[in-house]
């Protein structure tokens, strides 16, 4: 008949150490699961179009000796623009829509 | 604000509108006439229709071809413009336009961005085109592109035709090329000049008493970076310069169309030669038109 060795009782220090280990694992386990989960590929972020926003400020310059023609310049309604045109400071805002427009062909 | 009546339709690859006085019982008739006129000239001058007169003439390069009186008139104007602008306006840029990628109707072109199809060389063969009343001879390998000047000429004819229908005055506008015919209201007609870099915004406003305005821009009819319809005949490539958009005045729309292209290539120097308003890359708007403070106030 063999004699079983008496079970050693864990010390308080050992118990505290194991408790810290178990607590830490429990705390970090969700973060590890999140880190291991699949993510969208990084390449998608690299392909995003880069938008360059340019602020356009129009400055109107009327030449010293305007020519006589059956067409007159009225005003430049551009935002924030300055103008050397006589009367441009009194430009109405907003102006009624024009009868027609011209814009390049 | 001036009360007007207007009608619109699409022709020659652009929006066309007729503007006339409000309340005229002749406006409907004038609209029908103007539309029929544009349909007819589109069939004559389109390079995208294989059955157009222009396509037939281009396909016959190298031999004498009989042409209609309208075709001969526009070709004569184009050849005169080539001489008057020292070659900066050139009706023989067809090969260069196609090489740049503009080989189909612009609505179809926009369906897919495209790069230049192939390299090209300087143009300048207009001097070799022979026109003898109702016959024309193009050098072999040379094609005519009368798109802009044909549109301007059609605007001129259409505006006069609208007045002949009984309207006191009429304004025909085809994609920014416009002409007033008849006797307009004493206060003139307001014309907004669109900003080439801000669609829907005005870069300025002009008041037109008579004659024509034409605008050409390198930001319109563009299908990629540096790819647009305005060819510099000196290089055969889309023009690169300080001007984004040129709006010019001339007595007729055909002449204004020529002058607008010239202004875009010449830049600021154009204002020593004609009336206009230039929108530059650096943000400035240059004009030699007299300011009208009374209208603005």
How would you portray this structure in words?
The complex is a heterodimer of chains A (105) and B (297). Chain A has helices at residues 12-36, 43-46, and strands spanning 59-67, 71-75, 82-83, 100-102. Chain A is of the alpha+beta class. The radius of gyration of chain A is 40 Å and the shape is rod-shaped. Residues 78-91 of chain A have low confidence and may be disordered. Chain B is 30% helix and 28% strand. Chain B has an eight-stranded antiparallel sheet. Chain B has a three-stranded antiparallel sheet with strand order 3-5-4, with helices on one face. Chain B has a two-stranded antiparallel ribbon with strand order 8-9. In chain B, strand 8 (189-194) and strand 9 (202-208) form a beta hairpin. Chain B is globular, with a radius of gyration of 19 Å. Chain B starts with a strand and ends with a helix. Chains A and B meet through strand 1, strand 2 and strand 4 of A and strand 2, strand 6, strand 8, strand 9 and strand 10 of B.
Key attributes of the depicted protein:
heterodimer, A: 105 residues, alpha+beta, two-stranded parallel sheet, 2 helices, rod-shaped, B: 297 residues, 8-stranded antiparallel beta sheet, 3-stranded antiparallel beta sheet, 8 helices
């Amino acid at each position: 008949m063999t004699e079983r060795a008496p079970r050693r009782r864990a010390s308080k220090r050992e118990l505290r150490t194991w408790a810290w280990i178990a607590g830490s694992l429990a705390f970090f386990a969700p973060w590890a699961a999140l880190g291991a989960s699949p993510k969208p590929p990084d390449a998608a972020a690299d392909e995003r179009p880069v938008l360059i926003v340019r602020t356009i400020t129009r400055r109107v310059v009327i030449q010293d000796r305007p020519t006589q023609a059956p067409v007159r310049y009225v005003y430049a309604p551009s935002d924030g623009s300055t103008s050397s045109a006589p009367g441009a400071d009194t430009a109405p805002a907003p102006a009624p829509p024009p009868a027609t427009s011209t814009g390049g062909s | 604000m001036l009360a007007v009546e207007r009608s619109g339709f699409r022709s020659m690859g652009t929006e066309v509108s007729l503007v006339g006085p409000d309340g005229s019982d002749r406006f409907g008739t004038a609209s029908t006439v103007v539309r029929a006129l544009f349909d007819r000239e589109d069939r004559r001058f389109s390079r995208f229709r294989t059955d157009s007169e222009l396509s037939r003439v281009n396909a016959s390069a190298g031999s004498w071809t009989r042409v209609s009186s309208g075709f001969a008139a526009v070709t004569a104007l184009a050849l005169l413009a080539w001489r008057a602008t020292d070659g900066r306006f050139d009706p023989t840029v067809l090969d260069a336009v196609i090489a740049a990628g503009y080989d189909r109707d612009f609505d179809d072109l926009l369906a897919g961005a495209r790069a230049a199809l192939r390299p090209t060389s300087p143009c300048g063969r207009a001097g070799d085109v022979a026109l003898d009343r109702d016959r024309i001879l193009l050098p072999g390998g040379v094609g005519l592109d009368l798109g802009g000047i044909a549109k301007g000429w059609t605007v001129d004819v259409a505006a006069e035709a609208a007045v002949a229908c009984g309207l006191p005055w009429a304004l025909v506008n085809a994609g920014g090329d416009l002409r007033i015919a008849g006797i307009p209201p004493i206060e003139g007609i307001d014309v907004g000049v669109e900003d080439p870099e801000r669609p829907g915004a005005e870069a300025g406003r002009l008041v037109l008493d008579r004659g024509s305005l034409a605008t050409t821009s390198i930001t319109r009819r563009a299908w990629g970076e540096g790819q647009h319809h305005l060819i510099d005949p000196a290089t055969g490539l889309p023009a690169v310069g300080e001007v984004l958009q040129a709006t010019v005045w001339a007595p007729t729309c055909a002449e204004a169309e020529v002058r607008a292209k010239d202004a875009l290539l010449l830049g600021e120097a154009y204002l020593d030669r004609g009336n206009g308003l230039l929108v530059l890359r650096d943000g400035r708007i240059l004009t030699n038109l007299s300011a009208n403070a009374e209208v603005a106030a």
